[in-house]
Amino acid sequence: SDLLAGTSTELAWQTLTHAVATATTTGDVVVIMPGRYVADTSTYLSITTGGANGLPISFAALTPGTVIIDGDCESDIGLQIDEVGLLDFYGLQFENFNEWAVKSSATSTAQSENVRFFGCVFTNNGRQTRAPSSTTRYGAVYANENTKSWLFRDCVFTQNGPIPHTDFDDETAANNLQFTTGVGVRLGGCLHEIKECFFFDHESGYPISVTGHWDHTTLSSGEYNVSIDDCYFGASTNTTPYSTTHGAIEVYDDSPSHGTYSAVEPTIEVENCTAEETVQGSGTNCLIGIYNDSAS
């Protein structure tokens, strides 16, 4: 019951929503017992209070891999993190959210910094059916241009993004744009790190999409929007019929729409990664694909 103290397994709260709403003190640790927690709202969990330096607010599975946060193909967003930071997540699995398992729409006046995921799994997110010509991007994680220093370590991303379709009334390039828009992780902002992560079975789009555009200061020498290190990209069947490139990492420059510092193209660092072959419907195989939006 949510009326209990929540201080031990015997006095545990019943719902994740109550735990998230109650963990508002810096240094709080929420330990989540094994089970499948099914979302019952469009946005399941919204975190509105962050931690402090050295005292993050943490959410951890009692046993890693046994806590499943399930959108049930009904909920759009699993975890909303907007204008707060210093949050840690350990050993959680996010699955079956229509749009994003994790999303941040931080504002220019209140950024989201230092959010970290350790040993988490993201599977079957962003699969929402939409018009074939839609360019709206969905997938596992979206952090916008007002986020900084997010970390993903030892995480697994599989089958995120739209499901490819072959039965179109009009199989033209314009009607198949949605195939290019699926992503595992889409990161704006800067100083993000993706380390020792695994990406499998992405059927459309890119496992990682880097948009950059930290709209507050220019980056110093040696700083990157995203550093990708020791990651493995498993073989995928990308059946996108009209995409021009297929690969593991996308650098997507639509900077003119993003403010003062946006003229600086997104920068990435990639080290010690392994990528298996991607089987494409047409176009070119590559590790890194570079796109330039029509506005730039």
The number of helices is: 1
Radius of gyration: 19 Å
Strand content: 35-45%
* First-last Cα distance: 54 Å
How many extended strands? 30
Low-pLDDT residue spans: 167-179, 239-245
Largest sheet: 8 strands, parallel
Q: What best-fitting shape do the alpha-carbon axes yield?
A: globular
- Protein structure class: mainly beta
Average residue pLDDT: 81
Strand order of the largest sheet: 1-4-7-11-15-18-21-26
Helix content: under 10%
Topology:
Layout: H1 16-22, E1 29-32, E2 35-38, E3 43-47, E4 57-61, E5 67-70, E6 77-81, E7 87-90, E8 92-95, E9 100-104, E10 112-113, E11 115-118, E12 121-123, E13 138-143, E14 147-148, E15 151-153, E16 156-158, E17 182-188, E18 192-195, E19 198-200, E20 206-212, E21 226-229, E22 232-233, E23 236-238, E24 245-246, E25 249-253, E26 268-271, E27 274-275, E28 278-280, E29 284-285, E30 288-292
Parallel strand pairs: 1-4, 2-5, 3-6, 4-7, 5-8, 6-9, 7-11, 8-12, 9-13, 10-14, 11-15, 12-16, 13-17, 15-18, 16-19, 17-20, 18-21, 19-22, 20-25, 21-26, 22-27, 23-28, 24-29, 25-30
Would you mind describing this structure in some detail?
This protein has 296 residues and is mainly beta. It contains 1 helix and 30 strands. It has one helix spanning 16-22; strands at 29-32, 35-38, 43-47, 57-61, 67-70, 77-81, 87-90, 92-95, 100-104, 112-113, 115-118, 121-123, 138-143, 147-148, 151-153, 156-158, 182-188, 192-195, 198-200, 206-212, 226-229, 232-233, 236-238, 245-246, 249-253, 268-271, 274-275, 278-280, 284-285, 288-292. The relative contact order is 0.10. Strands 1-4-7-11-15-18-21-26 form an 8-stranded parallel beta sheet, covered by helices on one side. An 8-stranded parallel beta sheet has the order 2-5-8-12-16-19-22-27, with no helix packed on it. The longest helix is centred in the first third of the chain and has 7 residues, at 16-22. Helix content is 2%, strand content 39%.
